[in-house]
């Protein structure tokens, strides 16, 4: 590769060779790992507990309010703040690895326990751990977030595997296609299939047919609300019918579980591989651990363990050396046998399954060593690092990636690594390399009123998306108990703070916020609730973390708004609400809009709304950006305009 030319800077359909990919990615993975470690406490990079809390990598002053055993022997510990209802702002997410420590102990002090974040609410955080700590739970506590080093190790291992060559592995024929050395091939015949789901639309059926004819690579492009996962599930069902063994993955546990849940009613032979603490309760029955426990080899292993327990008892009582030696020998043999039976129990389940489901990084588990698949399917592929996709791809000879590269890419901590192309996804790279030859776009959407959808369709999808008749004209006031009012009637609403003296500010961490605008957003949510919209059907989203904190603080003052969901745009990807309120925050005389100008972020923001999308912004500031100016003009033309001064 030309020196200094990073992957992101290449012209879009320039080929990236395997060697270039490996040599560029290795240092970028290290950079990203360093960035994550420096965010977490364990590095000692953070000088004081208070600054660690401000950074969001630790939560101080917690009390343990519940400790239970559940989830196949895992313990669930629930923590709340000692200081009030709402947890302080933090950067913890589900599945993060955390340690528990006494509140004011030193930074490097040993933890009371370690676990994985299981659930987060505004007022509590639940951690799944192997054990309940024997002491210390009754005193004030803190949680520290750790960098997830296993993920980086697995990505590095995969790079090494790729660099050593994959000629002998299951993906030997796939790799040259994904690096542009050999063109993708499809079956000459048009594949006909009988859909399991009788509601599929024409674009879904067409995509499934193309997916089934692909011999090595297929990209399923699913714009917001177009039934991408519905289509992925149908592809899996059709492939199972054909006798394929499938590895189905996604970047996040929740997306994997979503597929599991939708496959279970079809009685597919499937197994969900992953740490039980990270799985949704409703898919635990499908978990590898649960199925292993039900297997024959597992009950044999169990019998052996009972025998070992009895022998251990004898060993304690035995007096003479010879007897002791004999018992120890027997114990050793039994222990070996028990391990063998356990491994066999795991292999039995995996061999027997038609579909194995796991996260991308989970695919590198030892349990799957030696297994290969006819097809690897990756959902949410446009939100996964390319190197993470390779962990799964190396196990199969054919792949289908589903995603939308026009929504937000994976979050990258290291600015430097992002600049150099770590965030460029495989989905995007292959879409650029092969385009329509290997890709099908779903074109009917089932979420948004067509006025909400049209902006996104025209701006990002060449006007190709159509709203399904069931949603095309749906309104807020058609929901049960909702009155038709000036607040519930508009599908698109623009509330302008220009000229209202509501300038943006910076918080201590340099994140931008806007107090006036937050008050306007909450005021509109209140109007909706007063017209009968359930608070849980309303979402307030904003690009800025500091604005989220401010909005949550305002919400906590009004009981009737407590179920209004508040999140960053990035945190709301994949979700939807009947009414979405977007607080854009930026209001300054220089017309600086920062990362608001990323088309993908605004695309995600607007397309979360089913029946009403309300944008609150300073139209003078944001119109400084051409793309945002078109958005504002679209809302002005097709929606209602209100000055914030009329509302406050
Ligand atoms: N052919 C169809 N007929 C009717 N409803 C459908 C059809 N396909 C999908 N849907 C509905 O559309 C909604 C979105 O579907 P799904 O969850 O598969 O979409 P997705 O594209 O994965 O979502 P996202 O936009 O969050 O990525 C679901 O409520 C689903 O039931």
Oligomer: single chain
Q: What structural class do helix, strand and pairing data support? A: alpha/beta
- Helicity, in percent? 25-40%
- Average of pLDDT: 89
Rg is 27 Å
Report how far apart the termini are: 58 Å
Count of runs of 4 or more consecutive helical residues: 20
Give, in spatial order, the strands making up the sheet with the most strands: 9-10-8-11-12-7-13
Q: Major sheet, described briefly? A: 7 strands, parallel
Shape from CA axes? Answer: globular
Beta-strand content bin = 15-25%
Structure in words:
- It is an enzyme of class 3 (hydrolase).
- This is DNA helicase.
- Its main location: cytoplasm.
- The chain starts with 17 loop residues before the first helix and ends with a helix.
- It has 20 helices and 23 strands.
- With 648 residues, the chain is α/β, with parallel strands linked by helices.
- It is globular and about 95 Å long.
- A 7-stranded parallel sheet has the order 9-10-8-11-12-7-13, with helices on both faces. A 6-stranded antiparallel barrel has the order 1-2-5-4-3-6.
- Helices cover 37% and strands 18% of the residues.
- Helix 1 (18-39) runs antiparallel to helix 3 (149-164), helix 6 (228-241) crosses helix 7 and helix 15 crosses helix 16 (545-555).
- The longest helix is centred in the middle third of the chain and has 32 residues, at 321-352.
- Mean pLDDT is 89; it is low at 1-11 and 42-46.
């Amino acid at each position: 590769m030309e020196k200094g030319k990073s992957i992101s800077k290449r012209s879009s359909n320039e080929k990236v060779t395997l060697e270039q990919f490996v040599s560029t990615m290795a240092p970028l993975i290290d950079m990203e790992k360093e960035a994550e470690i420096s965010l977490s406490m364990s590095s000692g990079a953070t000088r004081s507990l208070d600054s660690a809390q401000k950074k969001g990598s630790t939560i101080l002053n917690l009390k343990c309010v519940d400790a239970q055993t559940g989830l196949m022997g895992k313990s669930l510990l629930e923590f709340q703040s000692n200081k009030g209802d709402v947890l302080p702002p933090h950067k913890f997410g589900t599945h993060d690895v955390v340690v528990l420590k006494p509140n004011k102990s030193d930074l490097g002090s040993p933890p009371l326990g370690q676990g994985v974040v299981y659930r987060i609410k505004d007022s509590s955080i639940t951690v799944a751990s192997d054990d309940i700590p024997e002491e210390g739970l009754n005193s004030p506590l803190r949680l520290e977030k750790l960098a997830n080093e296993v993920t980086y190790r697995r990505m590095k291992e995969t790079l090494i595997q790729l660099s050593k060559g994959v000629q002998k592995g299951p993906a030997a024929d796939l790799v040259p296609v994904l690096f542009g050395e050999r063109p993708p091939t499809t079956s000459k015949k048009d594949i006909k299939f009988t859909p399991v789901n009788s509601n599929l639309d024409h674009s879904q059926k067409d995509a499934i047919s193309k997916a089934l004819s692909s011999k090595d690579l297929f990209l399923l492009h699913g714009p917001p609300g177009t039934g991408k996962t519905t289509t992925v599930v149908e592809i899996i069902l059709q492939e199972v019918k054909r006798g394929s063994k499938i590895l189905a993955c996604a970047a996040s546990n929740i997306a994997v579980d979503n597929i599991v849940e939708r496959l279970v009613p079809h009685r597919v032979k499937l197994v969900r591989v992953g740490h039980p603490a990270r799985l949704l309760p409703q898919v635990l029955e499908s978990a590898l651990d649960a199925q292993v426990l039900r297997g024959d080899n597992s009950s044999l292993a169990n019998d052996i363990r009972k025998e070992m327990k009895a022998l251990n008892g004898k060993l304690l009582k035995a007096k003479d050396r010879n007897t002791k030696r004999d018992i120890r020998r027997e114990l050793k043999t039994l222990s070996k046998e028990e391990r063998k039976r356990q491994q066999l129990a795991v292999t039995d389940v995996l061999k027997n399954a038609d579909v194995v489901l796991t996260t991308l990084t989970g695919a590198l588990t030892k349990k799957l060593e030696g297994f290969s698949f006819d097809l690897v399917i990756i959902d949410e592929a446009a939100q996964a690092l390319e190197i993470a996709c390779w962990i799964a791809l190396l196990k199969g000879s054919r792949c289908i990636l589903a995603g939308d590269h026009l929504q937000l890419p994976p979050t990258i901590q290291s600015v430097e690594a992002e600049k150099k192309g770590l965030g460029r996804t495989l989905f995007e790279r292959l879409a650029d390399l092969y385009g329509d030859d290997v890709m099908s776009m779903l074109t009917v959407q089932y979420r948004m009123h067509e006025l909400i959808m049209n902006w996104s369709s025209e701006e990002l999808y060449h006007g190709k998306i159509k709203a399904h008749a069931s949603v095309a004209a749906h309104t807020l006031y058609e929901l049960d108990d909702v009155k038709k009012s000036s607040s519930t009637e508009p599908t698109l609403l623009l509330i302008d703070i220009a000229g209202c003296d509501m300038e943006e500010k910076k918080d201590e961490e340099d994140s931008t916020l806007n107090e006036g605008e937050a008050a306007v957003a909450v005021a509109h949510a209140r109007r909706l609730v007063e017209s009968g919209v359930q608070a849980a059907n309303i979402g307030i989203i904003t690009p800025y973390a500091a604005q989220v904190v401010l909005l949550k603080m305002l919400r906590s003052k009004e009981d009737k708004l407590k179920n209004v969901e508040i999140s960053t745009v990035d945190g709301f990807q994949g979700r939807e609400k009947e009414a979405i309120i977007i607080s854009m925050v930026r209001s300054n005389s220089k017309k600086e809009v920062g990362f608001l100008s990323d088309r993908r972020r605004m695309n995600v923001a607007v397309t979360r709304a089913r029946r009403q999308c309300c944008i609150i912004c300073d139209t003078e500031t944001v119109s400084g950006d051409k793309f945002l100016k078109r958005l504002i003009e679209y809302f002005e033309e097709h929606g209602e305009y209100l000055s914030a001064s009329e509302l406050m």
